[in-house]
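Why does this matter for the project? Reviewers at the last site visit asked to see concrete outputs rather than summary tables. In response, this paragraph embeds two records directly. Each consists of the residue sequence and, immediately after it, the corresponding structure tokens. Nothing has been edited or filtered.
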Amino acid sequence: MIVALAIGLALLIQAFVVKPYQIPSESMEPTLDVGQRVLVNRVIYHLRDPHIGDVVVFHPPQGAESGTECGDKNTGEGTGAACDLPTSQESGTNFIKRIVAGPGDRLSIKHGHPVVNGVEANEDFIKPCQGGNGCNLPHAITIPQDHYFMMGDNRGASDDSRFWGPVPRNWIIGEAFFTYWPPDRIGLL
């Protein structure tokens, strides 16, 4: 009886409060390495709004996992502007990225850094762009209400909102707050 109760409680906590995730790609290097494991707080965004700088797990728009599909053909790849609208369907895949802009913000990209409302972000923690696709998107877009713009910390090797658009708030699963594997990387994010 006690074992069944403990298992049930553990499953409830994982389903509704804190869930573990494994980093699947190099898009968040150097902050998070491939195979590193993090805990995600699934309750926090019921209590407060997401903030710029939060590292979050979310469902991207459908098509993000297989390529770069923007919901607005006038923005995104080849237009000089980041994608300003996701496709309407939510993917079942989980992504992990950093929030760089929120609802109503004006955003452009300069050398891989977000320029939000005319101010270039100071990000000494990222792996810089090396002149690849998406490193410079000078035409500003406006982030729609209840949407958040996500970018990986490995700016030259991240498939992110630059290509498939901002993410609706209700597609955000939670904030990654703690890394527990490997042992030499244990700590708060």
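We now turn to the second protein, recorded in exactly the same manner.
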Amino acid sequence: MVIPANKKHFSLHPCGIGRGLKTKINVNIGVSKDCCDVESEMEKARYAVELKADAIMDLSCYGKTGEFRRRLVEISPAAIGTVPIYDAVGYYDKELESITAQEFLGVVEKHAREGVDFMTIHAGINCETATTFKKTSG
């Protein structure tokens, strides 16, 4: 079981996630180039809270994502999750392949400082890395 809870998320009503616990309801929202209306997304967040969502996933990738995230953390008793690589593309205004590891980690740290409870980290391995893991694992 895990209990995602950032100490900076003061409005959080923490809940456990894991085997033997009830099914959780997760709501996906966020600002994007196609839908950059922060107020509309905040209304969706308020509705998700009203309907007792357990988690809200902020998939923002465009515009004032930090402002949106701070407001979301402020009003939501549900755990807040993000996908930092989505935000990094807009934050640095770069193509994905141009973002450095340090820049990516900077966005991860920024989200944590803003009160995000959990993050989805997209990480991949190639055949060479898999072979190395296989050789070095017990």
